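4.2 Preliminary Data

To establish feasibility before requesting continued support, the project team ran the inverse folding procedure on a target of 548 residues. The structure was first converted into the token representation described in Section 3, and no sequence information of any kind was made available to the design step. The complete token record follows.
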């Protein structure tokens, strides 16, 4: 039979909009001659709906919409599979199940619920869902079809060394006589995830000697970015169809000839990370009901990268950049910011903060009598800038995009209510050394980001001659330590030994990480592009005393 993979970008809770999208792609799939069209996990309500699942009217609306979609496709020859939520059985202690419906002849003909409920990193499904009690195959086009939902395909014993579950839904369905595996997913992106997903699905196809088709959600929802990259694999694990990454797409697969559409895609993780950040920014702003963004443009590399991402995500006419120099800001930083804004075609305004800073000092002078200037005065400059950004946000109905990177968020090299002010931490999951790689990628064809920005030593410019290395080790030393400690939970001793570093240096870095948890938990949501991002996937107590 001919199967269409409809890789759509749903919005959480937008039942009407999601239904229109499902119906539109169904029409396109039918026009393309498909017998069946697959939509992603929870496509009807969007993934992840979190505590919206606790609302009975939300669950009821999901069921109503599925019935409406079935009714509106009653006269179609095509069958539809889409994900939604169904009420859980009594006695499970849960309200809902994560389900997939087969719609045919104007009705819901078959329902399969998810068996394996992930409860790690960003996933919290055991909080909400009851697992399926059993699985069944359904017949379509002469095939015994095994319908699985995302995690159900992530427990193959031939691929994973350490499995998380004691059952394998795919294996059980294949033993029951399944001839094809369908998987509807909402699998978020992070570095190297596309390759892992492809290799895992290929292992399933080879092990069972059956074709495997996976449709994945695309788009940004809060901190998560879904890359799409839907796939169809033949019996030997070869890719026979491949959808685009980071875009909506519709591809067709012929299970008789084992052929399908293959969109050209690069395996470059630098390219993927950049596209993920653009997509995540666009969807965060638009799905929150905004169209514009405001950015503090300092002349540094971090704010330059955020400005480039914002301009591509929202359009140059929807980005306002503010230069807010103090008496410590160099003329070069102001000129570099203006040059970047001209390259991007975005609006750039200068709001000097020197006068406001002086007024703060005058007001605080009696209180600070006899005390020397220190980090307090540095933070005041940052907080003045934060207030100006929020004023522009209010006046122009724009969201502030923060410009702090993962190196700074890890070590607390950022100011609460200052440079941390904003609605979204666009590059909060990108280490400083990776920032440079992304900027070089952006400049691969022409100089978008002025060379001077890439070449200057990083500096917050909050005191005369300040450089980041006054407070932190060089980033090429710092970032590998942070990656090992934050993302892989290696001990300071192991990090020092494996990288031939002084243990005291590593311990000093780790102490910075541990004492900055209170800052991170007050930060804007971070777009996740690595395996372990700050935010919903990394949960640590604030009031803790950790031995280093």
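Position-by-position output of the design step:
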């Amino acid at each position: 039979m001919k199967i269409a993979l409809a890789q759509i970008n749903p919005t959480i809770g937008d039942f009407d909009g999601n239904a229109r999208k499902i119906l539109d792609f169904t029409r396109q799939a039918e026009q393309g001659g498909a017998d069946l069209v697959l939509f992603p996990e929870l496509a009807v309500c969007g993934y992840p709906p979190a505590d919206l699942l606790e609302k009975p009217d939300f669950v009821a609306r999901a069921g109503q919409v599925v019935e409406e979609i079935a009714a509106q496709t009653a006269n179609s020859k095509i069958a539809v599979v889409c994900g939604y939520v169904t009420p859980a059985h009594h006695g499970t202690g849960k309200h809902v199940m994560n389900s997939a419906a087969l719609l045919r002849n104007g009705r819901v003909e078959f329902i399969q619920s998810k068996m394996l409920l992930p409860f790690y990193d960003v996933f919290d499904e055991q909080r909400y869902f009851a697992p399926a009690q059993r699985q069944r195959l359904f017949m379509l086009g002469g095939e015994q079809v095994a319908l699985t939902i995302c995690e159900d395909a992530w427990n193959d014993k031939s691929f994973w060394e350490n499995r998380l579950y004691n059952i394998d839904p795919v294996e059980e369905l294949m033993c029951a006589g399944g001839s094809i595996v369908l998987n509807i997913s909402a699998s978020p992106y992070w570095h190297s995830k596309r390759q892992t997903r492809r290799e895992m699905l290929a292992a399933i196809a080879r092990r069972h000697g059956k074709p495997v088709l996976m449709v994945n959600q695309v788009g940004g929802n809060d901190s998560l970015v879904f890359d799409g990259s839907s796939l169809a694999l033949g019996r030997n694990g070869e890719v026979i169809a491949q959808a685009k990454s980071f875009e909506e797409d519709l591809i067709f697969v012929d299970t008789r000839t084992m052929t399908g559409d293959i969109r050209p895609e690069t395996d470059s993780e630098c390219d993927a990370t950049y596209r993920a950040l653009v997509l995540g920014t666009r969807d965060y702003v638009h799905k929150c009901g905004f169209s514009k963004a405001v950015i503090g443009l300092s002349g540094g590399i971090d704010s330059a990268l955020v400005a480039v991402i914002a301009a591509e995500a929202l359009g140059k006419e929807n980005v306002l950049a503010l230069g807010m120099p103090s008496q410590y800001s160099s003329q070069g930083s102001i000129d570099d910011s203006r040059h970047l804004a001209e390259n991007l075609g975005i609006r750039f305004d200068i709001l000097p903060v020197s006068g406001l800073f002086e007024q703060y000092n005058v007001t605080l002078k009696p209180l600070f009598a006899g005390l020397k200037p220190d980090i307090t005065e540095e933070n005041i400059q940052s907080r003045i800038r934060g207030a100006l950004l929020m004023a522009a946000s209010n006046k122009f109905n724009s969201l502030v995009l923060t410009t702090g990177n993962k190196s700074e968020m890890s070590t607390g090299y950022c100011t609460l209510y200052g440079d941390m002010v904003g609605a979204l931490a666009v590059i909060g999951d990108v280490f400083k050394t990776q920032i440079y790689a992304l900027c070089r990628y952006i400049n691969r064809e022409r100089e978008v980001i002025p060379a001077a920005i890439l070449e200057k030593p990083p500096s917050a410019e909050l005191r005369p001659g300040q450089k980041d290395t006054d407070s932190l080790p060089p980033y090429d030393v710092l970032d590998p330590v942070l990656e090992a400690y934050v993302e892989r939970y290696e001990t300071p001793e192991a990090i020092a030994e494996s990288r031939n570093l002084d243990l005291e240096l590593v311990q000093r870095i780790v102490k910075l990480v541990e004492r900055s948890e209170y800052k991170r938990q007050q930060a804007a949501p971070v777009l996740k592009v690595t395996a372990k991002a700050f935010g919903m996937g990394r949960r640590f107590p604030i009031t803790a005393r950790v031995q280093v």
